[in-house]
Design goal:
Strand content: 15-25%
Number of strands: 25
Bound molecules: adenosine-5'-diphosphate, magnesium ion
Structural class: alpha+beta
Number of helices: 20
Largest sheet: 9 strands, mixed
Helix content: 25-40%
Amino acid sequence: MAIRRLPETIVNRIAAGEVVERPASAVKELVENSLDAGARRVDVAIREGGRSLIAISDDGCGMGADELMLAIERHATSKLPDEDLFNIATLGFRGEALPSIASVSRMTITSRPAGEENAWALAIEGGSVGAVAPASGPLGTRIEVRDLFYATPARLKFLRSERAETSAVIEVLNRLAMAHPEVSFTLHDGNRERIRLRAEQGELLDARLGRLGAIMGREFMDNALPISAERDGAALTGFAGLPTLNRGTAAMQFLFVNGRPVKDKQLTGAVRAAYADFLARDRHPLLALFLEMEPRMVDVNVHPAKAEVRFRDPGSVRGLVVGALKHALAEAGHRASTTVSAAALGSIRPQGGQSGGHQLSFAGRPHSGAMRMPQTPYSPVYAPVSTPSQGMSEAANAFHAPLNEVGHPDAGFAPAARSDDLAAEVAGTIDHPLGAARAQLHETYVVAQTNDGIVIVDQHAAHERLVYEKMKQALGERGVPRQGLLIPEIAELDDEDAARLLSRAEELAELGLVLEGFGPGAVAVRETPSLLGELDIQGLVRDLADEIAELGDAFTLKEKLEEVCGTMACHGSVRSGRRLNTDEMNALLRQMEATPHSGQCNHGRPTYVELKLSDIERLFGRR
Ligand code: ADP
Ligand code: MG
């Protein structure tokens, strides 16, 4: 048996078997060449999934006539300048992509370098090289590959459907585009445009996020944490999605080493480890990570397709990736992906809230007299103040209460003195159904802690409801408790409004508002309903005058109690936008517990929402 050297074409075809597995791998090699040539624009067109045509145009450095001839020679490359295989800075270096592809297809290359007046063209068919001839063409390079694998029919048989091949091309192109946001990319599949990515402007990180968003979707952009870390001369940057944004496969994980898209088990393993505490085993985060290191620290020459890498110090790389991701996830704190908060709100919404009745489940008990709590010692605002003199002192106390914890002097809902019980309760024991107030948020929401959950109260809605229920109850019994003002407040109105109010003075007094005439166009307010707390009296009087005008004479104020109470509550101290101290907040909660139907406001909206710890745990996938 004689040993002989294989002809060049056969050698190239054997190489092609490794380098060019399918159309997508040809696209990858050709686009990598464009990027290595410094292109800012890469346009790709394919037909039949790349089987009948792959055409790639770029505006890179181009090739002259001599370079063209060399380019399609095996192991000819303009890269690897110092012939150091351990110092590879370009995507290509093996010098075998062009000859390999050319050996199994019909290829034409048209290229024009800067400074030359015309382009040069070269045709290669199944590996047999034609002659370089002058041609017309723009600066840059255009490579057309027709009938890929026509010369190796066995390989043709392994190609998959046009659709599958096309999507493989799309993926290859997207991956390369992620690493090069400054380059514009398009892909046309013969029927329609599949990719159009404009060149991103600005700083690398912004540009990169813009490009990632364009490829991975807006959702990723909104929920991505920036990654930035260094270790042992390696740097990791990129963006990692919040764990709450996850997928059933790892298809949305993109890893790059020195600008080269890689599929690397070690890196994937590091990602998995970093997210292990946050994600179920079968869920995968979305991310794009870019690892940059001294070319000497990583071997990219593991396989002709160059998708695998070998690190000199795999432990250090793993540490870098795990550490950077864990750090970013810790920084994110309580942030949950925007997609989750919508779902969460859906599950928070009170059950049975659709049919108008926003009755909340309240530890299994309905809102009724049944849940009325025993009178608590710290709700003196509601202590009946029936005689003006007594009322005076109470009112004086309330209005001159010492500065509360939040340093706000105008709290009107609070007891003047702090009870020890309250302090004890706030400190720990939480045996009230609505819990112990822990915070006020946005001057609108009271957040309380219960034994097995949290309660969020809309203070304005709750207060409005309380005023209404209390008044209703008080009217049926001994009259609405009032508090006297130290100095009567004079409200200026126009004559008609003043007269209208005074004509209802008796009714108003029953509702806790005592006023009398004070010359033309003015009323003097002497007492106010104590359950309103400190009041904006001027505003209340003016609004009541309007309300009464609107109601007309046909109704008594009692018949329109809801409206009147609503108007009154709007000027009370607990309306939204008022800061409350802990005592005031707890007083509000206790009042709610003691008041039937306080679970919804007069407009049927809930006054509070309770989240059981079990619900919360479910929200966070702890159950
Ligand atoms: P490699 O990329 O490993 O060098 P290739 O066979 O892919 O090998 O390309 C051979 C050479 O042809 C490259 O080194 C480069 O000089 C040249 N070349 C290929 N494509 C282009 C292009 N689009 N623009 C400019 N030069 C190119
Ligand atoms: Mg190449």
